[in-house]
Structures are given as C-alpha cells and as structure tokens.
Amino acid sequence: MTKQNNAAGQWNGRAGKAWVAMQDLMDGVLSPFLDIIVERTMIERPARVLDIGCGTGGTTVAIERAWDGAMQCVGIDISEPMIAAARQRALAAGSNAEFRIGDAGTHAFGGQKFDMMVSRFGVMFFEDFVSAFRHLRDAMAAHGSLHFCAWRDPDENPFMTTAARAAAPLVPNIPAYVPNAPGQFAFADRDFVVGLLRKAGWHGVECVPVDEALAFPARQLENYYTRLGVLGPLLPDLDEDLRRDVLTAVGAAFEPFVDGDVARANMACWSVTARA
After folding, report:
1. pLDDT at residue 257 above 90?
2. Strands 262-275 and 72-77: what pairing?
3. pTM over 0.85
4. Going by C-beta distance under 8 Å and a sequence separation of 6 or more, which residues neighbour residue 61?
5. Phi, psi of 274 (to 5 degrees)
6. Of 111, 101, 42, residue with least CA distance to 76
7. What is the distance between the alpha carbons of residues 53 and 125, in angstroms, rounded to a whole number?
8. Which residues form the Methyltransferase domain (predicted)?
C-alpha cells in the first residue's frame, strides 16, 4: 500500500469519521484561523476560490456565505465521509458551495482556473509537496494567490503533541515526527515551506508566524484526545488493560492545560501567502 493510499484509508476510515463526529468542537477550536482566511478573501475579492483539504466544509461555506453567494467556492478533500458532511453543512446553510472528493495535488480540474486557493491546515499531507503545489499552480489564474495556515514546530504546540508524548512509552507504534515529511507538522520549518513553494513556481512567498489561543470545554478533553490525533486510530485496537493505562497516562499529561472548566493552550502556526 502506498503512502497516499494509506492516507486515503485513514481519512475514509476512523480518522475521517472521527472528524465528522467532532466537527462542532473543532469548528470552535479552529475558528480564529477561519477568520484569517475569510478576511483574506475580503481583501483580494476573488471570483473563484478553491479550498484545499476542506474537511467538513467549514471554511468553504463561510467564504461563500460571507460573499452572499457572489463567489464560486469549491472545496476538495480526500475523505468521503468528510465531504458528505460538508455537503450536508452547505445544504443546511443554504450555501451554493461545491464539494469534490479527491486529492487536490493530482485532481483533474478540467481546465478550471481559480483566482484564489486557501487551506486551513489541509496542505501538509501531500506525498510529493513540490509536485502537488506545481499542479495547483497550473489550476490558478495568472493573477491568482495562495493562502494557507500550517502548524509551526511541535515544540511550539505542546497541546497537540501531549497525547503522543504521554502514550509513546506504552504504545510502540505511535508515529514519530519526521521533519519535512507529510503529516501534521510537515511545514514546521519556514525555510522548507518557502523553498518548496518557490521550486513549484510560486512567487512572492511570505510566511508569517501567527499565535492564537485555544479554549474549549474541559469536559470535551478526553473526547478530543481519544478520537482525534495519533491516538484516535490506535486506541480501538489496544487490549483493555493497555487502553486503560494509556488513558490514565494521557489524562494526567493534559492536566496542566485545564483551567477550571476550560482547556487552554496556545496554537502556533504559519500564515503563508504566495502568487502564481
């Protein structure tokens, strides 16, 4: 099985279904970055927008609704359950946003050209970054722009790495962080991000650090780390005793983030822009 097929299997299996189940919580957690992207569309006023790795469609629908249907918005994601949820979201919101199932890095857009491409943490998983961003540039109008958010270094995002660090001594197959490799923190290195975009033919690349506060109900914390991230796909396959030990260790590791009835942390990312 190739890396890409493995990723497709995960996002069409437990990982994708977990994100659908948790979409209300994650919409709240990631809302500051949604605001950044929507504001960017307000500045540039594109006519056609592609949302890369759109997930359950929060960003796509928000952009389309912000422009009251005057903008063509297309969301694309490899996950069938997440795209199904995105289409339901659009229907409920009265949005005309369009959603497609596919890998944006290889998808045949049929000659369609976009004025802007955006992504809220959806571009770090391509198997071949340069090839994917070159392909996306080919689907961009000559004057078009790219804007995405990507996580900075894992050490700057301790909340998101706590579960893996706490579970690693007990669960040997916890995936290790590999710098510059496809995954959540693939774009942690600013120079790497700028270099690959330039190699893919993009111009005027800017990579600006952004920090936002994470806050959500502490009662949702266990739901968060048992369904999402590295633990989500692994926990169901652990035997009962090991699962209990892992949950005890991970729960204790998250205690420093709990402030009364709220879980709080800093979210550190890059806001990246480039021109075709």
Report:
1. yes
2. unpaired
3. yes
4. 73, 86, 89, 90, 93, 95, 97
5. -155, 165
6. 101
7. 9
8. 49-144
